[in-house]
Amino acid sequence: MSERYANIVGWGKYTPEQVLTNADLERLVETSDEWIFKRTGIRERRIVSPTENTSDMAIAAARDALAIADVRARDLGLIIVATSSPDYLTPPVSSQVQHALGARDVGAFTLVAGCAGFVYALTTAQQYIANGVCDNVLVIGVELLSRFVDYTDRSTCVLFGDGAGAVVLQVSNEPAGVLSSVLGSDGSGAEHLILPGGGTANPPTHETIDQGLHTLKMNGNQVFRFASRIIGKALRQVIQQAGLTSDDIDLFIPHQANLRIIESAAKYVGFPEEKIFINIDRYGNTSAASIPIALVEAFEQGRAKVGDTLAFVAFGAGLSWAAAVVKVAERVKPIPFLHSRRKTPAWISAFNPLNTVVVKPLGTVLGLLQAGIQRLTSWFRRNQS
Ligand SMILES: CC(C)(COP(=O)(O)OP(=O)(O)OC[C@H]1O[C@@H](n2cnc3c(N)ncnc32)[C@H](O)[C@@H]1OP(=O)(O)O)[C@@H](O)C(=O)NCCC(=O)NCCS
Predict the structure, then answer these.
(1) Of 101, 283, 336, 340, which residue is most buried, by most CB within 10 angstroms?
(2) Does the active-site annotation cover 255?
(3) Mean pLDDT computed over 61-65
(4) Distance, CA 42 to ligand 1 centroid (Å)?
């Protein structure tokens, strides 16, 4: 049996229309555009409207990713939603997304790994594909932290924004897609980035609300130190694991939390400025959504292309971190006709001559036809941009 790789074949993002600028924040707390930009690299961030929820952003990003991938929701094998800010504690937001997409009976789960959630989810999806369990997996990183931010606390409210990004991973025989990954966690730093209320430790009461435990608390200095220490190392490790060197990486797409942290990680592994993708100035820290949003923009701007090798690194609450090396390949392998989700009825399989003479050849012809159409679509896409 040939190797199964998980290639990124579709991508989409959703960023709310409302922009919250540093000047707007100057009117809310004692801060300045100069301080925020100098310390973080952020100029503005997006905030959802009161009528939008996490699921709405996730669904919008997912629809675009499925359209680009040319994969129907019902042909997905799995949906993973990475978020720390779901619509509800239960049911999982992943089921809301699965239902809204029309992905009937498709397995779905929500994965919580702070800002590293998207890279954790990507790695998980890759495992399902490599092991032969699924052919197509939808991975979404989405965050709506503005509902958990205290807009009187200048040390946190200047950092976070809302948004969603999604990718479709598809099985491929080409050695591409997620080539290596590194996951890490250090729970000893849990209190440095925490939403203390609302869980089992501090269930919501009038007291927890009065104490402001329902909003995000952060020890910025500690998180900064942890990130500066860990992500350069994780990056170097994941590149080595892929059997590559930093020269082989075409584009570095880091979690957009702080420009100074990004630059120090890039310096640690020796990435020149032109290899770093940065959009923190326009979105702030969108947590689990930050890498997929940046990835989509990199594709849209032609900074990431077919054939490129990308490096992702993220860190956040937990404390946790994750890194991955991803090669973007042409989509060449046809989705096998009569895929396991659409099994041949038992009565056809039982009647072997019909299976051999009609079903299998028909499957091969349709598979080839599908591969031809996919190649043509990719050719058009390439020649359009
Ligand atoms: C939050 C962060 C930008 C603060 O920058 P910093 O250089 O570490 O600043 P400090 O926290 O040491 O604060 C320096 C001073 O600025 C003040 N300050 C904090 N926030 C401010 C703001 N928004 N505007 C103006 N002054 C501010 C502090 O009160 C402090 O004042 P003091 O010296 O009088 O006590 C930085 O620590 C950071 O980005 N940490 C990582 C956070 C992160 O990435 N979190 C998400 C992880 S996914």
Answers:
(1) 283
(2) yes
(3) 97
(4) 13
Q: Is residue 174 very low, low, confident or very high in pLDDT (cuts 50, 70, 90)?
A: confident
Which residue among the candidates 53, 255, 258, 279 is catalytic per the annotation?
255
pLDDT digits (tens, 9 = 90+) for 273-331: 999 999 999 999 999 999 999 999 999 999 999 999 999 999 999 999 999 999 999 87
Distance from the alpha carbon of residue 384 to the mean position of ligand 1, in angstroms: 44
Question: Please, what is the average pLDDT of the chain?
Answer: 90
Q: Is 115 a catalytic residue?
A: yes
Q: How many other C-beta atoms lie within 10 A of the C-beta of residue 186? A: 12
Report the predicted TM-score, pTM, of the whole model to 2 decimal places.
0.86
Residue 257 alpha carbon, nearest atom of ligand 1: 44
The answer, yes or no, to whether residue 346 has pLDDT greater than 60, is no
Residue with CA at minimum distance from ligand 1 atom 44: 257
Write down the catalytic residue from 115, 134, 136, 192: 115
How confident is the model over 204-260, as pLDDT tens digits?
Answer: 999 999 999 999 999 999 999 999 999 999 999 999 999 999 999 999 999 999 999
Sole residue written with tokens 């942290």: 261
Taking residues 118-127, report their average pLDDT.
98
Q: Ligand 1 site: residues with CB under 6 angstroms? A: 31, 35-36, 39-40, 115, 154-155, 158, 193, 218, 220-221, 223-224, 257-258, 285, 316
Say what percent of the chain tops pLDDT 70: 86
